[in-house]
Structure formats: structure tokens, C-alpha cells
Amino acid sequence: MNDVLELVGDYMFSRYPDVSASVPFELYDEETATSKVKTAKKIFDSLSERINKIED
What's this model's pTM, rounded to 2 decimal places? Predict the structure, then answer.
């Protein structure tokens, strides 16, 4: 759940760019972006695993 909460703000900035006082792409460097992508992949993999258990 913490992983999801970590990405909520990023969702808000990408979905509603006017909520930020700055340009969203300026808030991320390569290290931060890589970390966010890894977190998103971790969430995706976890959900995929749960779906596969339900389908079996």
C-alpha cells in the first residue's frame, strides 16, 4: 500500500498539471524517474500475481 501512496502525487501531477506551481517534468531527475518506474512495476507485478491466483 505504501508503494501506491508514493505514486499518488505523481498521478495528480500527470493527470492535473495545473495543481503544480512548476512544470511537472522539471520535478524529476533520472534517478527519481527510475525509482518511480520500479515502484510502478512492483505494483503491477503484485496485482498481476493476485489476478492470476483468482483465475486459477
Answer: 0.75
Could you tell me the residue range of the domain that residue 50 belongs to? 2-55
State how far the Cα of 40 lies from the Cα of 19, in Å rounded to an integer: 22
In tens, the pLDDT along 16-41 reads 878 777 777 788 899 999 999 999 99
Our count of domains for the chain comes to: 1
Residues 6+ apart with CB under 8 A from 9: none
The HSE-up count of residue 8 (CA atoms within 13 Å, CB side) is: 6
